[in-house]
Design a protein that fits this description.
The protein is α/β, with parallel strands linked by helices. Helix content is 41%, strand content 16%. A 7-stranded mixed beta sheet has the order 2-10-9-8-7-3-4, with helices on both faces. Strands 11-12-15-14 form a 4-stranded antiparallel beta sheet. Helix 4 runs parallel beside helix 5 and helix 4 crosses helix 9. The longest helix has 25 residues.
Length: 392
């Protein structure tokens, strides 16, 4: 029998194995631990939105292929959302594209806009699909590291500027930022915008946590800044805002040319997806402000509950300004290896977390940091806090 000598996996993906989320979720299930690793809520979103999906299914809306760019009702709701909240005007017919979650939006944007050899700057630590999508596009990722400072994480604008070369094609932003919880300020984003204009760069910005900002923090879409609408692809998603992560409804908003480019790649990925759910999310985006305010207040209280409990257990805590994740430093507990710590945590405390090192090119820089998710029921977080106090 002949033996294959060439590796089966495309060399661009050879460095990417099974995601840490799959590993740690399996560990949680195997040990019966509380899963504060993977970022999914443990309750469904609004009942009226779930019923809207059921109604669409029963009425036969979306059960067959929906339009490639997304159903008109959802595209109109996305355009209205961007205009009413941020003053951004997009044509729902030509400047809005519905995707299979934000993950496909990221993949389609990078496959469409990046040529082999192009450099893509990403804020490190970064969501793991960013690196894989840059690799699939044939690009080279260039990390610019957010660094701990005074209880949070900050962007070094000088480091960002120094990272730009003649080969840089685009900057990949994420704000509010997973995993650090950083929300880039208007001043920081203005500096990024000025750099993009000066060096003629595109910006792809992942804003799926736009509604999850705390302590009166302002979320500023970089597309709303002068000169940026025509060079920015903004990515949004229903999963985080409405707690239906399994529906996989995401979108991009961008200028006509950028949307057409991304659609050219997207049509050969899923083509279409989530038909009936698109109608439901169109209704979700039109929920009253009270829903969004209540979601934010609920998660802010849960952030404080988990952050305080982690501090009492002995972690150094970086209290997030946004998202539903909190990053901790394990060195006060006498540990330095986040992988080893997270793999032993179920046995020690019956809780699962994620080692931040998986979000870094420089694994040493992320080694002592561990991420916990607080998008869980209050009673689950209270039990997790009680268990984690064993570490103290």
């Amino acid at each position: 029998m002949a033996v294959m000598t060439r590796p089966l996996l495309n060399r661009r993906l050879a460095e990417f194995g099974t995601t840490i989320f799959a590993e740690m979720s399996a560990l949680a299930a195997r040990t019966g631990s509380i899963n504060l690793g993977q970022g999914f809520p443990d309750t469904d979103g609004p009942e009226e939105i779930r019923e809207a999906a059921v109604r669409a299914l029963r009425d036969g809306r979306g059960n067959q292929y929906p339009p490639g760019p997304g159903v008109p009702e959802l595209r109109s709701a996305i355009a209205d959302h961007q205009r009413q909240r941020y003053g951004l005007a997009f044509d729902p017919d030509t400047e809005v594209l519905v995707t299979a979650g934000a993950t496909e939006a990221i993949a389609a944007a990078l496959l469409a806009l990046v040529e082999p050899g192009d450099e893509v700057i990403a804020l490190e630590p970064y969501y793991d699909s960013y690196a894989a999508c840059v690799a699939m596009a044939g690009g080279t990722r260039v990390p610019v590291t957010l660094r701990p400072h005074e209880g949070g994480y900050v962007l070094d604008l000088d480091e960002l500027r120094a990272a730009v070369t003649d080969r840089t094609r685009l900057i990949l932003l994420n704000t509010p930022h997973n995993p650090t919880g950083t929300v880039l300020t208007r001043a920081e984003l203005t500096a990024v915008a000025e750099l993009a204009i000066e060096r003629d760069l595109l910006v792809v910005t992942d804003e799926v946590y736009e509604h999850l900002v705390f302590d009166g923090t302002e979320h500023v879409p970089i597309a709303s800044l002068p000169g940026m609408r025509e060079r920015t692809v903004t990515i949004g998603s229903a999963g985080k805002t409405f707690s239906f992560t399994g529906w996989k409804v995401g979108w991009i908003t961008a200028s006509l040319g950028l949307t057409a480019a991304v659609r050219s790649a997207k049509q050969f990925l899923t083509y279409v997806s989530s038909g009936p759910f698109q109608y439901a999310i169109a209704e979700a985006l039109r929920l009253p402000a009270a829903y969004f305010d209540g979601l934010r207040a609920d998660l802010e209280a849960k952030r404080d509950l988990l952050s305080d409990g982690l501090a009492q257990a002995g972690f150094a805590v970086y209290r997030p300004a946004g998202t539903y994740f909190v990053t901790t430093d394990i060195r006060p507990l006498g540990a330095e290896d986040g992988f080893a710590f997270c793999r032993s945590l179920p046995e020690r405390a019956g809780v699962v977390a994620i080692p931040n090192a998986v979000f870094y090119d420089d694994r040493e820089a992320g080694a002592p940091f561990v991420r916990f998710a607080f998008c869980k029921k209050t009673e689950v977080l209270e039990e997790a806090v009680s268990r984690l106090k064993r570490l103290a």
